[in-house]
Amino acid sequence: MIAPRVVVLDYGSGNVHSVAQALQVAGANVELTRDRDAVMAADGLVVPGVGAFTAVMQQLNAVNGADLIDRRLAMGKPVIGICVGLQVMFEKGVEHGIETEGLAQWRGTVELLDAPLVPHIGWNTVEPPQDSKLFEGIADERFYFVHSYGVQNWQYDGLGPIPSPVPTWAEYGTRFVAAVEHGPLTATQFHPEKSGQAGIKLLGNWLGTF
Fold this sequence. Notes:
The protein has helices spanning 16-26, 36-41, 53-62, 65-74, 84-87, 196-207, and strands spanning 5-9, 29-33, 44-47, 79-82, 90-95, 98-101, 106-112, 120-125, 142-147, 149-150, 166-172, 174-182, 185-188.
């Protein structure tokens, strides 16, 4: 069996080396690059992200990340965002009173978690939908989170010919989106690469959707 070719988008944000290592353990042939041809040719694209929403968007825009992601999704080619890589898939983020436009793949706003103490750091359970492919075999596992912002009280609809995004929820002070599955676009608020065997299994499940 030929290992799927996965590009981790090397645009200046995220734990690219630990993500690449986890993907290799999960069974992928991994390349760290921002080269357009390599990104478009890969079986899968990983968009990591660490830090502030605004900074991540600036770094993505500097390498034409929005266009690369749009083109891959239009061709039905898998993309997964991790941590802030999930957040930027939404319409906008609001941090310290500053509103920044996201990639707008999904409606919704990233805001400060309504919790007694932030950041949310550590292991937490998740609530995936019953038919989740991403969490197959690991629905009861715990995953590692490091974040102060998230998407809360998300309203989504199934209007039009395109199916709705399917969220997985977690709770920390309030319910927030922990992951999303939506055709070729997938994302996790937690870090699979820091989530032990459960994270490796999740990445393997994602590779299995190619």
